[in-house]
Design goal:
Elements lengths: L11 E5 L5 H15 L3 E5 L5 H4 L5 E5 L4 H8 L5 E4 L17 E4 L9
Parallel strand pairs: 1-2, 1-4, 2-3, 4-5
């Protein structure tokens, strides 16, 4: 479903590992939509993510799950910018895309860089 969205519309994507990160991501998404008119895509690994079930205006949400499907998704991701709360890109299960993607880390707690 995600790849059915035309490439031109896949500019800014947010990724959430779980429902608990919605608190940090949602205000930024809402601001980008309300102040700049940015249409956003939201990808989560959680079925009970509040943004998956009730996305803010301007946001289209998807659930990719865990494991091999998630790993394949990230290795073939073709977007301009991926914003996520995961600092350890390439260390564990999330690997860089085969395409040129810019990655942005969103700090989500005072100690999230430790």
């Amino acid at each position: 479903m995600f790849n059915r969205i035309p490439r031109i519309e896949r500019k800014i994507v947010f990724y959430s590992e779980g429902a608990g990160y919605a608190t940090y991501l949602e205000p930024i998404m809402r601001t980008l939509w309300e102040n700049h008119g940015c249409k956003l895509l939201y990808v989560t690994s959680s079925l009970n993510d509040p943004i998956l079930n009730n996305p803010p205006d301007g946001v289209t949400s998807f659930q990719i799950g865990l494991g091999a499907v998630r790993n394949y998704f990230f290795s073939t991701l073709h977007v301009d910018l991926l914003i996520m709360t995961m600092l350890d890109l390439e260390t564990f299960h999330i690997k860089r895309s085969n395409y040129r993607v810019h990655y942005a880390y969103l700090q989500h707690s005072l100690v999230s860089t430790h």
